[in-house]
Amino acid sequence: MIVFKNIKKIYPNGTVALKGINLQIDDGEFVFITGPSGAGKSTIIHLLTCEDFATEGKLTVSGTNLKRLSHRQIPKYRRKIGVVFQDFRLIPNLNVYDNVAFAMRVVGRGGRVVKERVNTVLEIVGLTHKSSVFPEQLSGGEQQRVALARAIVNSPEIIIADEPTGNVDPEMSIEIMKLLSSINKNGITVLVVTHEQRLVKAFKKREIRLNSGHIEFDTEEESHRSDETGDSQSAENDNQPRRRSIRYRKEVSEDD
Amino acid sequence: MIDSFLFLVKSAFKSIFKNWLLTIGSISVLTICLLTLGSSILLFENVNLFIDKVGDESQVVIFLDEKLSVDDINQIHQQLLQIQNIKNINYESKEIAMQKYLESMGENAELFSDITSDVLRNSFIFNVKDLSKFEQTMFEIEKIEGIARIRERREVIERIRDISKIVLMLAIAIIAIFIIISILIITNTVKTSVFSRRIEINIMKYVGATDFFVQMPYFIEGIIIGILAGILALVFTYFAYNEIFAPIIKDFGLFAPLSINGKLFSFAVFYIIAGAVIGIVGSVFPVKKYLNV
Known about the structure:
The complex is a heterodimer. By secondary structure, chain A is α/β, with parallel strands linked by helices.
């Protein structure tokens, strides 16, 4: 479970990126984080990956208060997270297999375990037949699938995808989202940062929309409200058959 | 564990071959640095050897008062024997001294036939063991009563020692400069290597690799450069010393130069460790920048 409790982030140059964010993402949820540029989406990713820390507030992931992690504990924490980037970040001189295996090798795993696991994830993303191909020989969609395979190869609890469809064609975007969705069905929490409202609408998942450092709306909250008022149609449209936990969104008064 | 280690070593070798031109540059400069280091050590050791030889040949002569009795002379002999830093003590009577002097004149000895040994003095001749304690030893000797004059080659010894100090200081300065240059060049080599692999480092950090794991290939790269430079420096030192330096000293006939053959192992260990340490120091800084992800 990811819990943001009154999270504020002010950068050293005075930019206020997050103005008291409160939200909860349950284990196994699929969440879209949307919003215009400068809304605070990247900051949320940076905080979750411990690239940066909140100025105020408490951010916990699976019960771990990220601010209390020592520099030495961060690598271990990051092994719970798989990150997918818009620009894929594949290593050009490694083939598909080695790009995926790389993520396992750098955390000290080797031998047959790597071979078996890499083959499994390549099968999941449908690239077994391209395991010996180099990234430059792949289409954008295929490269993103390799990146996805690399993100899940260490069996993370959470996948964070930062604009995963930003560099792929529309059809392939749907494929990538379907893949993320199927990964999510295996119980992995998926956070997708995107600009593409088309995808958000098509997949009907929870959407947290940020604007100027605060939450503009959270569909989960809306659906929760709808549940309480008996609006069953809204609940039916939401094809996530899980979590109806108590959520809170208390915007700090000065942000309103 | 072994897989991880092999992965790191493989990464280091990949980087070395990828940036081969810079690697050769690093190895060359580090080799020159180590060569300077080794040459300075050899030069210093040889200067010390030369000083010892000069010391051995520089006999100290103490001339005794004319009025001393045989007992007094024996007493002075006993006092000299108690001074620990002197060796080869020999008594030379004025008669023997005269005889030696005439012998040294050769055919011209006849010119001095009228001169008696009374113009000379009885003396003790000896060598100083440790020249670094020369002044202290002389101070002890000067305290002995019955000595008229002391003849020693203190100035020569001090001059050689001064030269030796200057050589050492120069060597230290040159070595320091070369070490800094070597570190800078290795830093640049590793920096290039790190820059070309920044995506890998970024991914490594995102998937949870420790700083140690990220830094290891570059440490290994630094160590490999250091070891290769150490081996090259050893080969150059061996041939340059045995084929050029030692024969020159022999030709001048100054003294028998230090033999390097028995010291090869020590030199190998020294060069490789020094090379590896400089290599590691040079590889630490460039990686640090990319670890803050």
